[in-house]
Design goal:
- The protein has 201 residues and is α/β, with parallel strands linked by helices.
- The protein has a single domain, classed as 3-Layer(aba) Sandwich (Rossmann fold), CATH 3.40.50.
- The chain has 7 helices and 7 strands; from the N terminus they run ααβαβαββαβααββ.
- Helix 2 runs parallel beside helix 3.
Amino acid sequence: MSDAPAEQFDEAYYEKYYENARTRVTTPAEVARLARFVTAYLSHMRLPVRRVLDMGCGLGYWRAPVAEAYPSAKYVGVEYSEYLCGRHGWHRGSVVDYRARAPFDLVICQGVLQYLPDREAALAIDNLAQLCRGALYLEVLTREDWQDNCDRSRTDPALRLRLASWYRRKLGTHFSGCGGGVFLRHSAPVTLYELERTSPR
């Protein structure tokens, strides 16, 4: 993430957008509700989950709900912020080039890609595909979201905004969208019925 200096994600950043109740963009309870949806959806699909990668894990809001859903799964938290790695002990790495010895059944990438320029964001999507053998949960702010959906008073403006169609095109090389921010690797051992897909094959 050469275009996003590590000092951008310092103590002040996380205090403003995650810990201050007046300015935070989300809460642990909101992330737990989202995690319950994602893990329940994967359970419905009967996708076995034994290894979970939280890429850009931040304050670790996904960790507890993932452990609740998958008590025997291995959870790996990776974070670019030197501050958070020192505070929480996460593995330090970038979504663009992080490597693992084995792929993961569930990869979580929430609120990361909007900080990258186009080339690095495209490389990151390819890397997420290499790291994932099952499902990807991806949340990324798009140009349309900035215009129509998000609360700008609680959203970091230092972003690289792209159209949703840009992400869909890049993701489609490796994944099938199935709604709610969940994408299945084309090779995942899951059958998707046609109307479960968010775009045609």
